[in-house]
Amino acid sequence: MVEHARLVLGRRDDRLGDAAQQREVARNPRLDVQQPWEANVDDYDRIRDTMAQALDGFDDFNERVRRPRGFRIRQPARERVFLTPSERAEFSSASLPATVPAEGRLTLGTLRSHDQWNTTIYSNNDRYRGLRNLRTVVFMNTEDMRERQIDEFDLVDVTSIAKDSSRRSVYS
What we know:
Elements: H1 18-26, H2 37-42, H3 44-54, H4 61-65, E1 116-117, E2 120-121, H5 142-147, E3 158-161, E4 167-170
Antiparallel strand pairs: 1-2, 3-4
C-alpha cells in the first residue's frame, strides 16, 4: 500500500534523507549527473513524477498517493502469479555463519520497520510488530531476558564489539 507521508522526525545535521544523499553525490564535479537532484530535494512531487515515468503501476502517482487510503501497487505474487521460470514460488536458503557469541554476550540482528524506506524514517510506528510511537526497541528472547533479569519495557544499554575489538555503545 502506498500512502502519502510527511517526514515527522527531526534529523541531526549529519544525517540526510535519501534524496539529499543523492543530491550530495550529484554535486561531485567529476560525475556527469543527468537527474536534477537539487530541484528534487526541494519538491518530492518531482521525484514521484520521475517514478511514474519509470515504474509500471505508478502512473498518476502524485494524485493517487494523496487519496485517503493511498493506492495498492500491483504485486503479482499476491495474485499468485510468480514471475519465475517454473511459474511457481521458488525458495532458496543460505546457511548462516557458525558464529557463536562469547559467554554472556548475544548476537544482535537488525531489521527494517514499517514506515521506513532506506535511511528515511516516516513515522515512529511499526504496524508489522504492533508498535506505535516507538523506534528505540530491542526484541529479545524471553530466556535471554530472564537470565539477565530484564523485564518487558526495561531500558537497556547496547554495546557492539567488532572483530577488531572496537566498541560502539548506545545507552538507555
